[in-house]
Write a structure and sequence with these properties.
Largest sheet: 2 strands, antiparallel
Number of strands: 4
Distance between the termini: 14 Å
CATH superfamily: EF-hand
Strand order of the largest sheet: 1-2
Shape: globular
Oligomer: single chain
CATH architecture: Orthogonal Bundle
Number of helices: 6
């Protein structure tokens, strides 16, 4: 069992928890160019991961905000409630800066 965050509102979240599992099981985003969708998932090279990150970092501040993360999950077809999105976001934001930076994004993307 991999613990993603053990202090999100006093609840221990693991990969088996519903929000995290649903985030990990999401399908390729149709909004990405076809060449990116073909290489979707673990094993994408750094350039492809950067393109994907930049695509969802819509304000180009170097982090994916909660709103941007929600849009990303919607594009992935995750169909999660706002609360599930928030829980997943907080679990992935390991440094607690209220944004998913590129390193956090890569760890999540490659752990899918």
């Amino acid at each position: 069992m991999v613990v993603l965050d053990d202090d999100v509102h006093g609840v221990r979240h693991t990969r088996g928890d519903r929000p995290i599992a649903r985030i990990a099981a999401a399908a390729p985003p149709a909004s990405l160019p076809r060449r990116d969708r073909a290489g979707y998932g673990p094993g994408m090279d750094n350039r492809e991961l950067r393109e994907t990150f930049r695509h969802y970092d819509s304000n180009h501040d170097g982090t994916i905000s909660l709103v941007e993360f929600s849009r990303l999950l919607h594009a992935l077809g995750a169909g999660m409630s706002d609360e599930e999105v928030r829980i997943g976001f907080e679990a992935l934001d390991t440094d607690g800066n209220h944004g998913i930076d590129f390193d956090e994004f890569v760890r999540w993307w490659n752990d899918r």
